[in-house]
Amino acid sequence: MDQLRLPRIGRLYSHFIFFRRLIVVFLVGFALTASGQDLRLPEAVEMGIANYGNVVAKGKYALAANERTSEVVRTYLPSVSMAAQQSYGTINGQFGPLFGLNGFAGSSGPYREEQSWNAAFGALYFVNVNWEVFSFGRRKRDIETANAQARELQEDYEQELFQHKVKISSAYLNLLASQRLLVSQQKNLSRAKIFYDNVSARVRNGLMPGVDSALARAEVSRARITLNQVKEQVKTQNNRLIEFMGGELQNYLADTTFITTVPKSMIQEIAEMAPSEEHPAKTFMQSRINTSEQLEGAARSRYFPSITALGVYQARASGVNPDYATDPTSFSNDYLDGINPSRQNYLIGLGFVWNLTNISVASKRLAAQELITEGLQEESRALDLEIETMDDAANARLLYALDTYKEAPRQVDAAQAAYRQRIALYENGLTTLTDVTTALYTLNRAETDRDIAFTNLWQALLMKAAATGDFDLFLNEFK
To answer: N or C end of the chain, less CB within 10 A?
Structure first.
């Protein structure tokens, strides 16, 4: 009679285990949803490019370079200065050499045999205009160099923006993979616990040896340790994503709606795409070369002279009268007498300046800049090779990831069937606990491989987008 009841009890217990698994899976999903804020990949990218310090900083540098270009353009305008000076003092003069050092200036007046302390007001008003009307191309070169530097910083910003989008997406996919692994490990722990409960009940009833209970308990511990390791990985990936997003610390729940589907674009067509000539890394490198070439031209322009137009209008006032040299009393202490202009002058002309020493200095500057240009060209060739090899690796990874994506569910189905079979055999005393443990490990590994395979397909697509320089190739999949 007892022998007839055992299979029936086994079936009832199997049904109990099945429903318990459903409840555990539901609770795990609910716990994950409640533990973090839902976040879609496009939202993460938008937050990252708006908040991340390096991206924002390089955007500011690009804007600053545009302002610098406007500054250089405006240096072409003539230099116009106005000044007004009013002073009070003596006007003793003396014969002898004198050089104005660091803005040194003094009073001027007639030479007398003795010191005089007679003082009066005086004033000077002038307008001065200097305009480098012809510089043999130097000013034009300066403007072109400033424009090239502005383009370089703008391309640097665009490259940083592109690279950061890729980093955010990769971090997001890593978080998604770790969260899916967390669910798989929760399921694995649940299976281990249920199996342990089953084995413990049979051991207590004397149907199984006591060592089976110890081995099943060890499997529970191993599953729990693995689960803790995955939880740590989830936290690490979550914080890594927050770092790239430039946001506050909190737990995010990645969107899983797309991970079990293949990209909408044809994988084979994507793999045949070649890297774009407008790749942000390439355009940035070319802008660096262009800037260096413009600096070469700027150095050459320092060989030549400049022609400057100048004009001065000057008005002077003094409280000392013209006959003061013969009549020491002919001066006035009145303020208005001293500041009212009584003499005016103007001057216009052209100046030709050629600093021959600049030729020697500029030749060395030119030689150094030419070497820098050659070095940048070598960097450009190395970058082209790097992008080419990255694209080739991305193509291979994309095709292999697609094959693995298709194969992974078959492995899970087979592992689940094997696990169920081993459980049934064990419950009927037809196999050992070692075989069940092996089947449990195989199923856990298959589920892990499936989670990784699903994520790897999208990581491969992201890698292809990074190699081609077209991030929309990846982002359009989420629109």
So the answer is: N
Q: Is residue 286 part of a domain?
A: yes
Specify the amino acid at residue 297.
G
Identify whether the C-beta of residue 251 lies closer than 8 Å to the C-beta of residue 37. Answer: yes
Q: How far apart are CA 122 and CA 319, in angstroms?
A: 6
Full-model pTM? 0.80
Residue with tokens 């740590």: 232
Distance CA 234, CA 240 (A): 10
4, two tokens: 């007839």
Span 4-13, pLDDT tens digits: 333 333 444 4
Instruction: Specify the number of domains making up the chain.
Output: 2
CA distance 224 to 216: 13
Predicted local distance difference test score (pLDDT) of residue 112: 74
In DSSP terms, 126 is beta-bridged to: 83, 314
The three-point CA angle 265-267-271 to 5° equals 120
**What's the start-to-end Cα distance of the chain, in Å?**
64
Please indicate, yes or no, whether residues 52 and 199 belong to a single structural domain of this protein.
yes
Which tokens is 78 given?
């003539």
- Which of 314, 337, 353 is at the close of a domain? 353
